[in-house]
Amino acid sequence: MRIRPRPALFATLSSLVLTAAAAGGAVAAIPPEAPSAAAPASLAAAVLATDTDGDSLPDTWETNGYDANGDGVIDVNLPAMGATANKKDLFVEMDYMSGRLASTAAFDRIKAVFAAAPISNPDGSTGIRIHLDGGAAAGSAYNLGGGNQVPYDSNLQPAVSQTDAIKNANFASARKAVFHYMLWADDYDNSCSSGNAFAIPNDTFIVTMGPKCNWTVTENRNVGTFIHELGHDLGLTHGGSGSVNYKPNYLSVMNYFFQFDGVPRTSGANWFSYSSFAPPALNENSLKESVGLNTSAAATWKTYWKCPNGTTRTSGAGNAAIDWNCDGDTVDTASTSINGDSSKTTLTAQNNWANIRFGGGDVGGGSPQKTQTPASELREMTQQEYENLKTTMR
Ligand SMILES: [Ca+2]
Ligand SMILES: [Ca+2]
Ligand SMILES: [Ca+2]
Ligand SMILES: [Ca+2]
Ligand SMILES: [Zn+2]
What we know:
The chain is an alpha/beta fold. Helices cover 20% and strands 11% of the residues.
């Protein structure tokens, strides 16, 4: 009886994949059987899918570059743009209408937020390396040759198809598997809405705070809204778990309470980032005021909540007592809606950073991930809604 030799290639690739698995990377399932006639194809797929750092960009792309059409020529040179196979990378091409591109200082802040993400990498570092490409106008640190100005359109309508048309005309198709695409624009669908990501997760989003709706654009608003919309691309929602907004225990720019100004900290700083922990659920039918957000993890955080009369309050340290029903004491077990809607429910939070989903839409080159998205996630905070929030602050 002849033993068919185990092909050397298979042994090598297999050990690579197993090494990646041991290092904690996300690896596609490997068929347990000995190699069959079909092995080379599935093997190639498995190796392609080896993604040691879990950023949805296969190791081979991050090591050798990405050859989109298989002609032997690298189309997107990820290592030349600073990617490695052992640390999470996130690529975003930014096109813009005249006057709408955010400042280099804003990009510095966005980059710092992702670099400080509480996410560990196989190379021993923490954080995510975000590669922003706004072209020459964004400054040399944010120019990977893709970002450019697009024709001015004060109202993208219908937003999805007009955004797609601009994307198709201004974004190299080879980049679709690597880059998220975003647009700094004016308005869409006459909504006066601050942005839109269209689906959760996704590969595309827009930030729309232009002159048409008389937005006052600040660096904070640009930073917060960019990170908010990119968060939808990365699978995050307005409620963390579900779409209920304005939860006092959801300390994230995904929450409208914090999109424009960040989450207030006891230090006086503001957190323009996703939530890094999930406080316990708050049952609005039985809110124990003496324990506040009820976790020592909230000690350096403040939060906002809504009073029965519609005003918005700011807490002290989140682990201290909070007057949920706004009657002047913190001794009640209160029954009141604290997120400004009329219903009293149990508000659950989420640790966003622990639930980031890489590879939304076409990114990663797998099958596009665009899930059914609740309507409440497909409209965004308007200037009016924000002004209403600010005028109710006490
Ligand atoms: Ca990777
Ligand atoms: Ca990487
Ligand atoms: Ca472009
Ligand atoms: Ca009270
Ligand atoms: Zn949103």
